[in-house]
Amino acid sequence: MGAGHDHHHAAVSNAAHRHSGRLWAAFALLSTLMVVEAVTALRTGSLALLSDAGHMFTDVLGIGMALAAVAATRRADTDPQRTFGLYRLEVLAALANAALLSGVAVYVLVEAVRRFGDPPEVLAGPVLVVATLGLLANVAAFALLRPGARESINLRGAYLEVLADLLGSLGVIGAALLIALTDWWWADPLVAVAIGTFILPRTWRLGRAAVRILVQAAPEHLQVTAVYDRLAAVPGVAGVHDLHVWTLTSGMEVASAHLTVTSDADVGAVLTVARSALREEFQIEHATLQVEPRADPGDCGAVEW
């Protein structure tokens, strides 16, 4: 097992825990505004505001799942049966987040198209006030989540949702102003469609990233052939087989490989150089490397996947 595993395990765990305070603050803020927006949307008949409230609901749900994943990871750190912790929970949460947000976007698009035939009147004043409050809440949540968005796919999911919701609030404000000034009721479903079409591509990208991790595909930024060539170039290595590279969770790349070495190779030196190369050149901190004498690779009992 790679020498840097325990250190990296703690680093990833601490990265998630470090942002839990920001998550709680964003969760409380957006929960309050979500209720206000939903109630106002139902009373004013604004589909745009309702879509924004629905989107904010997925923000709240996504952040709640992120908090649950952080708590579960903290508990799993003390369970010897969970040798990799529960890091995959945040990936599952991100996938569920993407699915829910896609559902909201599709509903808004369908409802908006239905309303184009006969757009209902909308009370622009209350919509404008509440949408402005929603914008301020999203700006605050955006600032709270931004530091952790680069470290965790789950936090990135919540961050992207808040970013989209921030732009959605701007759209709702624009629609409310347009309705108040011109009585052009089509502005409301048009903004709802704009919000829906803005959301979908981003959620699909998030879902694709989560699925890629769950099926244990190699990270997109890393070429497996390059890893193979680098390991094969380590002095004393005669061959490389059973090489696997995958992502455990955000920022934690994992590799395993069998290294066939020459009869005069220094096994300790081979492992040191190989692990150093993986860590420094490919940012793979956790590597399980099996060293074997030069022989037919089939003799080691390797499983070809």
Automatic annotation (TrEMBL):
Tell me the GO molecular function terms.
zinc ion transmembrane transporter activity
Q: Where is the Cation efflux protein cytoplasmic domain?
A: 220-293
Domain spans labelled Cation efflux protein transmembrane: 23-215
* TM region positions: 23-42, 54-73, 85-110, 122-145, 157-179, 185-204
State the membrane topology: Multi-pass membrane protein
Q: Does the keyword Methyltransferase apply?
A: no
Name assigned to this protein: Cobalt-zinc-cadmium efflux system protein
